[in-house]
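hi! just following up on the protien thing from before. the input was this:
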Amino acid sequence: MSIVTRIFALIALTLLPVAGGVLFSGLQLRQHRLEELRSDTAQLARIAELDMVRILEGAHQLLATLAKLPMEHGWDARACAVVAATAFSDFEYDHITAVDRSGTRQCGSSSVPNGTVMTDRELLARILDTASFSVGFYGVGLASGNDVIRVGYPVTDNTGAVVGALYAGINLTWLNTAIDQWRLGEKTVIYITDRKGIQIARNPDSRGVGQPIPDKLKPLLLATSSGAAEVREDGGLANLYGYVPLKAALSGGLGVFVGRDQQQIVSEINRSIWLNVAVALVGLLFSGVFALIYVRRFLARPFQNLLTVAARWRSGDWSVRAGAASGIPEFDRLASAFDGMAAEVSSRELKITWLARYDILTGLANRGIFAEGVQHEIARAHRDGTSFAVLYLDLDHFKGINDTLGHPIGDQLLQSVAERLRASVRETDTVSRFGGDEFALIATDLREPADAATLALKVLNALSEPVTIQNIEVRSGASVGIAVYGPESPSAEALLSHADMALYRAKSEGRGTYRFFTDAMDEEVRTEFMLGAELRDAIVSDQLYLEYQPQVDIYTGRIIGVEVLVRWSHPTRGMVSPGLFIPVAEKSGLIVTLGRWVMKESCRQMKEWLDAGVAPPLIAVNLSALQFKTPRELEKDIDAILAETGVPPHKLELELTESVLMDASREHSDVLLRLRKAGFRIAIDDFGTGYSSLDYLRRFPVDRIKIAQQFMFDPTEGSGDAIIRAAIALASELKLDVIVEGVETAKQLYRVKSCGGREVQGYYFSKPVRAEAMTTLLRKGIIPSLLHAVIREAIAG
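and the predicted 3d structure came back as:
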């Protein structure tokens, strides 16, 4: 939409409401004028009725005076002469006649002979009944033949008794002449009717006298109160009639109608309304024309400048400015605002570009710039024959520092690491942070791979030095993986992948050191990848099975539980060691699917033992750290498996290593509490080998700790026994069960017994066996060889 259109629309939005307001006000005025017209017309009808009452009042007074004449001598010649003379002297009256109670003519002004009976018996009856002045109906004078309306008045004797009546015929020709003098307004129609709706007067056209009023007015004659009504004539024109019906008339028997031409009045009002609206619309048109001229003459140039600048901005060039020299203050302020916005956007764009390429915490290059740098060095190596290496490193135990000392100290440690890395490399080298505690270096212009090793040692030495942060001495260290550019690493992705493999090897071989990528590592990774793919098939193709190792009370020989161990019988590789495929499952994420399968098979077997009546007190199943990453899914899986197999929760012991328990208690403590509240037993596996903390034993009262088998193979025995003895004492104080793993010889059994242990697990009693063999052991309930050893030890003691 162009600016001209917009301005015109703005003017229209301004003036159209004005026009609408004018129209609305006119319609309101129209309605008000119609109401006033109705009120005025009704008032005219009442005025007409009052004029009619005044005319009738003259007849009333005259007849009242004449009615006194016969009070002394009756209707004698003198009285009759007065009546005749009065009628002849006043054109208003067609005739005046005196009658007795029977309606017989006594005398009068007409040529009708005395003794004639009066024909208007209804008027005579009303005069005799009311003993008052009454108005009759339209009629024709007997002698004259003129149109008349008869009125009458009672004649009384000296006692006040009604003895007859005196009535007169008012000449309607005279009456219409009198009505013509009322001046009720131009184009005003007046109808005066008798009780039967016969017109006795009509103005301005008296030719309808003696005829009934229009049918559409007859309902108004019988109304209960005066008012005004719209009546549509036969031609379709609407007239407004004010009316005084018979029941509301002061005249005592006449109806009054005053009609006005409503259509003409409404047309005049409408003409005024539309004239005002037309004036507003013409104003709108002239305003639009003026706006068009003004825009084209004064606004087009600065506006076009703004459009041109905006197009440059849209193309990404935020350096151009609109300027403020149009001479129009509003446009100049707008241009200044746009220029300020462009400056702000330009600044933000630079900042966003920096954030997209650099790490906000350390200021080091991010992975994107690092990858560009590797590509640049590859191109330079092809061109100049130079060599370079990628060093991939991460900090040792950084997660523990974050968890124990807090993220602010962890962030400051990362900043210190960044500074030390910058100080350790040359200006031509690149230092980058990939995220978390992962860093990478590009070491350029290497003469030989040993130069990369020298840099790695320099970095390791720099990072091994303690850092004081908030008065806390923090020690970390790092592990480094090195990949030297060569035929085996032809791309940036390959170099990073190879450096990552070397880093993993350095961490797995003790941390705090460096390793070069070798072909053997690549082969190992490929093997792990293939093994992961084959493991995925193994889970669904019945290549996996479970073995069970009993847990035994050394004093009674009773089997107090069994631990579940998964085995893999590969169709071509043969038996695959758990030490090989379990880490692969952890890396690939298959451990969640594998753990679900182990849990389901374990519970199914436990259900068989329960049904056979040989079930052990509990069955222990290991849980991995990855399963606790989605605790809701873990709970859902366990609930579904127990619901399907019918194994009660207290028969299931969930084994977690110390590190898994610490992570779970820190991030998902509610899950552990819910599982234990539901009846599951919680055991700490490999106790004493992780980052042991007595605090989690206090906060999460587990049911049992399993002392790691490493302490059974301590060559000095003394230190291992001390740890076993201390762990058993700690468990006793905390009222926890304790079991020692890895008992394979009688000597080791004796050491456990001497340290105060009672529950053990190991090859001395039974290797892990298939379900059938375990069922046989469970039917016996005890292991006899253990009893013999106890007896021998008792005798030796």
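DSSP finds 24 helices and 26 strands in the chain.
The mean pLDDT is 81.
cheers
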